[in-house]
Each structure stands twice: as C-alpha cells, then as structure tokens.
Write a structure and sequence with these properties.
280 residues, alpha+beta, 12-stranded mixed β-sheet, 6 helices
Length: 280
C-alpha cells in the first residue's frame, strides 16, 4: 500500500512522474533508474539518432568493455541522462551520481533536472557538443532537484530502490532481482559473458563502441551501446522494448579511488513504506 501523504499532485506532475518511472526500466530494470523530470522537450537528442550501427561480426577477443571491467575496482562519476521517445523527441532529463565498488556494490542516485523555457532549444546542442567530445561536459554538473528523484543501492546482499517522490522503498535480494542490467554489469554482480553478448561496434564521435545484448528476455532493455575514450566509459545508449532510448553521458570520472562502505549501503528513511524483505 502506498503511503498517503495528503498532498494532491497536479495531473501534469503525475504524468511526468509516471513517464519517469517507465524511463527508468531502460537502464536498470525493476523501475531502478527512473527519470523524474517535469515537462517534455521538443528537441530530438542527437546522441540517440547518431548511435553507431553494429555491423561487425561477434568478437573473438576482448572488447574495450572487457578491458575496462578487467581493471575496474571502483568508479565514481557524475552523469546526465536523457530519455527520447520512439520518434527521437527528448521527453525527460536528469542528472546524478554513480558509485561502484566491485564486486557487487553500487549506488545510482538520480534527480530530475529543472525544465526551462530554453531547454527544448538548447537540449539538442548540449547533446551534440557532448557527443562530439565523448563526454558530458558541463551538462552533468548542473544540479537537479535533490529532494526528488530516485536512489538505487546494491550493498552486495540486497538491491534497494528508494523513490523519493512516492516516499517508498522496494528491496529484493540481489540474486532475486533482474540480473541483465547495465548497473549490475559495471558492478560485477553478474558474469558479463554469461549474461550478455558483446560485439565491437566501430568508432564514431571519437569513441570506441561496444554493442551489449542481454541473453534471454528478462532484461528491460533490448540492447545497449557503450562508448569508450582513453580507457574511460564516456557514454551509454540504451533502447528499451518499446523503442524509447536512454542516453547517459558521464563526466568527472574517477576510477579506482576510495569508496566508503557507507556510500554503498542503505537504510530506509523514517516514514517511508518498505516493500519486500531484505536478506540479513
């Protein structure tokens, strides 16, 4: 049962929140990486339209993604995430922070980015600039609404999802959650080659691309493109089963730096509803 807050939400806000939670399914499954921006944007994101095609044969040797994961122990990065509909129109935008401590621990904290009257016109230009240099530039550092959005944490035993908008926490043991998700891939929660097919997808926009396709039908995304430059993961482009595309641009990347245990642990805030039972 959802917690009754006594507040009436405007129809537009409710629709935006619902759309945000649908967009989250693309990136992390289980409604984990929700986008909760308010309002829609009219500009088509260039990154989604300019995704490189994967016509190369299946790889027999290691891909840039294999090499990246082989040397990855921890990761800390900010990001800008956009969501486009099936016609390429940007409909949501958010910023956040990803922290990874391999194996099996991560935190993905995402907040809606405030809409502005110029966002529709400037959105495409910002993505174009980021696509050109393979990084999120200053876009990812623009603050979102810290009191809204979603937080997903894997503490190595349980997968926690905190929806600040609903004041609701969902928890599942890690091995009971959907496994074929990019966040779990990066954190080392799952065996990459067992759960995904990796195919080199060539170079474009100064990035080396790898096509990632989940095995089976339980994943919430159809395929994903991982873009690398100078050994760093700079961009992810993910398409869901409904034709929506999420683009994640990474910035301020720190690999193999210190990560505290507190940063990949979670305690439900007082007053929130908790659905599920955590494994002790």
């Amino acid at each position: 049962m959802l917690k009754q807050t006594g507040k009436a939400f405007p129809a537009a806000s409710a629709m935006a929140a619902a759309r945000a939670r649908r967009g989250a399914n693309i990136v992390a499954g289980l409604v984990m990486l929700a986008l909760a921006t308010a309002g829609a944007f009219g500009a088509a994101p260039v990154a989604a339209n300019a995704a490189p095609t994967a016509s190369a044969p299946a790889a027999t040797g290691p891909t840039p993604l294999d090499k990246y994961l082989e040397n990855l122990k921890t990761l800390r990065t900010t990001f800008l995430q956009t969501l486009a509909d099936g016609q390429g129109r940007e409909i949501d935008r958010a910023t956040g922070t990803l922290i990874v401590a391999r194996p099996g621990k991560f935190s993905w904290d995402i907040h809606p980015q405030a809409a502005s009257t110029t966002a529709g016109a400037a959105g495409g230009a910002a993505i174009t600039s980021a696509a050109g240099n393979g990084a999120a530039g200053g876009a990812a550092s623009e603050p979102g609404n810290k009191s809204a959005g979603q937080l997903m944490v894997s503490d190595g035993r349980n997968l926690w999802f905190f929806d600040r908008d609903l004041e609701q926490v969902t928890v599942k043991p890690v091995d009971a959650a959907l496994s074929a998700t990019p966040a779990m891939l990066l954190s080392g929660t799952v065996d990459v080659r067992k759960n995904f097919t990796l195919t080199p997808a060539g170079q474009r926009d100064g990035l080396d691309w790898v096509l990632v396709e989940p095995h089976g039908t339980d994943a919430d995304f159809r395929d994903a493109l991982f873009g690398f430059a100078n050994g760093d993961l700079k961009r992810m482009i993910l398409e869901d089963k409904l034709g929506q595309t999420a683009t994640v641009l990474f910035d301020h990347i720190e690999r193999n730096g210190p990560v505290t245990a507190q940063e990949t642990s979670f305690t439900p805030p007082k007053g929130t509803d908790v659905i599920g039972t955590p494994r002790k």
